[in-house]
Write a structure and sequence with these properties.
Distance between the termini: 51 Å
Main location: membrane
Structural class: mainly alpha
Subcellular location: Cell membrane; Membrane
Strand order of the largest sheet: 1-2
Largest sheet: 2 strands, antiparallel
Radius of gyration: 22 Å
Organism: Ostreobium quekettii
CATH class: Mainly Alpha
CATH topology: Ammonium transporter fold
Order of helices and strands: HHHHHHHHHHHEEHHHHHH
Shape: globular
Helix content: 55-70%
GO biological process, one term: ammonium homeostasis
Number of domains: 1
Family: Belongs to the ammonia transporter channel (TC 1.A.11.2) family.
CATH superfamily: Ammonium transporter AmtB like domains
Length: about 450
């Protein structure tokens, strides 16, 4: 039953690739739909190779090393009973990889996607996964003896705010910064121009698929159902509440901003969808250790974090991110770790993490969130984890993308970008012009303009 639960949860997480695919396709222009869809597919494929050859071994291979694993490469000597965990963890690694594709969409060479997908899943991501999720990692909260835990607490990241979302979002930030903005994204004065995606329907379909897949992401991280059904059920409830609260808060804030700027209230469907994703990311670290009322607060604040960080990335950093992947995943991932260090409940921590013992094998209480009456040590550990992940990812991914740029493998030619990558790279548009011209929408609005 446990193996089936883990495998099925892994299948749900893998199905999130479909959600990312639809979200990316809807959020880019029609002339680049084929390109971003194929990139999502090949991210998944090359990510599987990287995870098989090196990634799983570095993350979960047997070792006494707190920094990385030292065995199980290419599944060597891995017993078949562990294969369910390999599959589940691969789906997580693939998720981190796919986050990057949205941030650098519409102007990046295909070769860059293939190389970074392998590099991320074979080296950058698995080392962070080892730190926090392996029993020997230096930031893990899964050790039994309190003396072995960093700061006496470890980092509470139950399903991957830091491991998955910060790694993917920060890698996207490095890639989007190095590849530069899309043509026409900023005017001569450096002010951003809107470049809307071609299908809100596809984008919101992607959001709902991702939300559905998150029920494998968070509850599945219990890694068992027999004896752990209460933990999985709590994760499912908290996931639902946080997503709902994040969507509502992001929608409300975007309405307030639009009214302040233009005098008109705009019900922003894309912003509401991204708000739901922001809530989902925000609860990922703490889904098993917070009460439902806290999940509502975490998700609600997550919507504000998304809107604020989206504007910060665009207007202050001048980084062009077509999907707001950096805001949703990197910044809300940071907030999620802080939230876990703040709202973690004493009883829930004891039910979802191993009991702690001292050197005399006597039970020791776990440190819990400062909001719940704790001493703040768990928050200090969370901030330490944020700094460590930020440094590790940017230290590797900025030079990595800079190297691709130096050798001419990062950005497509301006004329190819203007024409659209579907035509220049994939043999034609995802929406053949004959179909658009013959349809009612094309007749009324002009098929040629719609394609571009």
């Amino acid at each position: 039953m446990d193996a089936f639960f883990v495998l099925f949860s892994g299948y749900l997480v893998f199905f999130m690739q479909c959600g990312f695919c639809m979200l990316c396709a809807g959020s880019v222009r029609g002339k680049n739909a084929k390109n971003v869809i194929l990139k999502n597919l090949l991210d998944t494929c090359f990510g599987a190779l990287g995870w098989y050859v090196m990634g799983y071994g570095l993350a979960f291979g047997e070792t006494a090393n707190e920094f990385l694993g030292e065995s199980s490469f290419a599944l060597r000597d891995v017993p078949h009973r562990v294969y369910s965990n390999w599959m589940f963890q691969y789906a997580f690694a693939a998720t981190a990889t796919t986050i990057v594709s949205g941030a650098v969409a519409e102007r990046t060479k295909f070769e860059a996607y293939l190389v970074y997908a392998f590099f991320l899943t074979s080296w950058v991501y698995p080392v962070v996964a080892h730190w926090i999720w392996a029993h020997t990692g230096w930031l893990t909260a899964f050790k039994v003896f309190s003396a072995d835990l960093f700061n006496g607490t470890g980092v509470i990241d139950f399903a991957g705010c830091g491991v998955v979302h910060m790694v993917g979002g920060l890698s996207g930030l490095a890639g989007a910064w190095m590849v530069g903005p899309r043509l026409g994204r900023f005017d001569a004065d450096g002010k951003p121009r809107e470049i809307p995606g071609h299908s809100a329907s596809l984008a919101l379909l992607g959001v709902f698929i991702l939300w559905f897949g998150w029920y494998g992401f968070n509850p599945g991280s219990a890694l068992a159902i027999v004896g752990a059904s209460d933990v999985a059920a709590l994760c499912a409830v908290n996931t639902t509440l946080a997503a709902s609260a994040g969507s509502i808060s992001a929608l409300l804030l975007s309405m307030i901003i639009s009214y302040y700027v233009s005098g008109n209230i705009v019900w922003d469907v894309i912003g509401a969808g991204n708000g739901a994703l922001a809530g989902l990311v925000s609860i990922t670290a703490s889904c098993s250790v917070v009460q439902p009322w806290a999940a509502l607060i975490i998700g609600f604040i997550g919507g504000f974090v998304y809107v604020a960080s989206s504007n910060f990335v665009l207007h202050v950093l001048k980084v062009d991110d077509p999907l707001d992947a950096i805001a949703v995943h990197a910044f809300c991932g940071m907030w999620g770790l802080v939230a876990a260090g703040s709202f973690a409940d004493d009883a829930l921590l004891r039910s979802s993490y191993p009991a702690l013992l001292d050197d005399s094998n006597q039970p020791v209480s776990r440190n819990y969130g400062w909001v719940m009456g704790g001493d703040g040590k768990l928050l200090v550990s969370a901030v330490t984890g944020i700094v460590a992940i930020l440094g590790w990812v940017l230290f590797h991914m900025v030079p990595f993308f800079a190297g691709l740029k130096l050798v001419g493998l990062l950005r497509v030619l301006p004329e190819q970008e203007h024409e659209g990558l579907d035509i220049s790279h994939h043999g034609g548009s995802a929406y053949p012009k004959e179909m658009v011209r013959s349809g009612s929408w094309g007749s009324a609005h002009g098929g040629e303009a719609y394609i571009k």
